[in-house]
Amino acid sequence: MAFIDKLALVLVRNRQQLVVRSKGKTAFFTPGGKREKGESDEQALCRECKEELTIDLVKESIAPYGVFEAQAFGKPTGTMVRMTCYTADDFLGELQPNEEVEELRWVKSDFSREKLTVTGEMILDDLKRKDLID
């Protein structure tokens, strides 16, 4: 079974989770991406957040959240994504779309599942189970 290995930032504010939508796409996903050769999780997460959200994560605030595996969105059946998620309580800069991201949206647990990737649904459900979002 093929795995796509990704990192993601689970950012919650006011009991809502931040999700993003890429330019030209319809589905929202948890911000993040793939490691580049030689990058640590922390380095890759910081780079991806700078590229997608225009923020600089405060490294000391980064903490593990969990790992989620599911069918990769838009990939052939059997191609799985392994999403290693982190939280970060502090960052510098203002959240705004950048590079490949067209839209940022704060969502609650009742957000349309049809507009989320499978891992996005799993993360949203996990946040609700932990009573971190409404």
Q: Could you walk me through the main structural features you see in this protein, from its secondary elements to its overall organization?
A:
- With 134 residues, this protein is an alpha+beta fold.
- It has helices at residues 41-53, 118-129, and strands at residues 2-9, 12-13, 16-22, 28-29, 32-33, 56-57, 62-71, 79-88, 91-92, 101-107.
- A 4-stranded mixed beta sheet has the order 5-1-8-7, sandwiched between helices. Strands 2, 3, 4 and 10 form a 4-stranded antiparallel beta sheet that branches.
- The termini are far apart.
Structural class: alpha+beta
Order of helices and strands: EEEEEHEEEEEH
The share of residues in helices is 10-25%
- Gap between N and C termini, in Å? 35 Å
Q: Which percent range describes the beta-strand content? A: 35-45%
E-strand count:
10
* Integer-rounded radius of gyration: 14 Å
What characteristic shape results from the CA principal axes? Answer: globular
Can you tell me the residue ranges where pLDDT is under 50 for at least 5 consecutive residues?
Answer: none
Number of helices: 2
Largest sheet: 4 strands, mixed
Strand order of the largest sheet: 5-1-8-7
Mean pLDDT across the residues is 93
